[in-house]
Amino acid sequence: MKTKVLNLDNKASGEVELKDEIFGLEPRADLIQRVVVWQLAKRRAGTHKILTRAEVNRTKKKTGPQKGSGGARHGARSAPLYVGGAKAMGPVNHSHEFSLPKKVKALGLRHALSSKAKDGNIVVIDEAKAKEVKTSDLAKRFGKMGLKSALVVDGEFDKNFHLSARNISHMSLLPASGINVYDIMRSEKLVLTKAALQAIEERLS
């Protein structure tokens, strides 16, 4: 599958071949969803916690005689039944991370890229470079290219381009080594430089 290569002035500067085994698959939503859930589970802090019965600062003195009162037996005010007592079976610190096979991760990335390609939401540019640090100028160029919400992926970002693009609210920058399913799917357009395209093909071939 061939696609045009543009420069930042929205002018054609050649063509490039997108490999069918990476960009030409029939997208499977179930694979993409599995990888996204795995990514978001790894991001969860898992620090939600309540005080257990052993940690509640209440008296441990027996509240009444063992028998004869007609009520239940209690050995401490930290019991969940009492107001101010511990919560029974509440959340504790733990990791939400789970394992996912490498082949599934790679396949999910291929299907995410294929999904963008199928919808016509992949833009290939020759390079992401700026002569000077000027956010307004870069924003106008992106506007001419019709990029309202985009993820820009490059091998190694030019310093001026990075400084110019970082304050554009609807643009995100990501090195090719960190490309992932979640960031691809949450952006409307995927902008790849020729260097990023080569890195992705080397990684997934």
What is this structure, in a nutshell?
The chain has 205 residues and is of the alpha/beta class.
Walk me through the structure.
The chain is an alpha/beta fold and 205 residues long. The protein folds into 2 domains: 2-45 and 97-204, Ribosomal protein L4/L1 (Ribosomal Protein L4, Chain: A, 3-Layer(aba) Sandwich); 50-90, no CATH class. 34% of the residues lie in helices and 15% in strands. It has helices spanning 20-23, 29-43, 102-118, 135-144, 159-165, 181-186, 194-204; strands spanning 2-6, 12-17, 122-125, 150-154, 171-175, 189-193. Strands 2-1-3-6-4-5 form a 6-stranded mixed beta sheet. Strand 4 (150-154), helix 5 and strand 5 (171-175) form a beta-alpha-beta unit. Helix 2 (29-43) packs across helix 3 (102-118) and helix 4 (135-144) crosses helix 5. It is elongated. The two termini are 16 Å apart. The model has no long low-confidence stretch (mean pLDDT 92).
Topology:
Elements: E1 2-6, E2 12-17, H1 20-23, H2 29-43, H3 102-118, E3 122-125, H4 135-144, E4 150-154, H5 159-165, E5 171-175, H6 181-186, E6 189-193, H7 194-204
Parallel strand pairs: 1-3, 3-6, 4-5, 4-6
Antiparallel strand pairs: 1-2
Helix pairs in contact: 2-3, 4-5
Structural class: alpha/beta
CATH architecture of the largest domain: 3-Layer(aba) Sandwich
CATH superfamily of the largest domain: Ribosomal protein L4/L1
Given this structure, which CATH class of the largest domain is correct? Answer: Alpha Beta
pLDDT < 50 runs, ≥5 residues: none
Give the rounded overall mean pLDDT. 92
Query: What fraction strand?
Result: 5-15%
Q: Tell the overall outline.
A: elongated
Query: What's the helix count?
Result: 7
H/E series, N to C?
A: EEHHHEHEHEHEH
Looking at the structure, the CATH topology of the largest domain is Ribosomal Protein L4, Chain: A
Radius of gyration: 27 Å
Fraction of helical residues: 25-40%
Number of domains: 2
Strand order in space, largest sheet? 2-1-3-6-4-5
- Gap from first CA to last CA: 16 Å
Biggest pleated-sheet summary: 6 strands, mixed
What is the number of strand segments?
A: 6
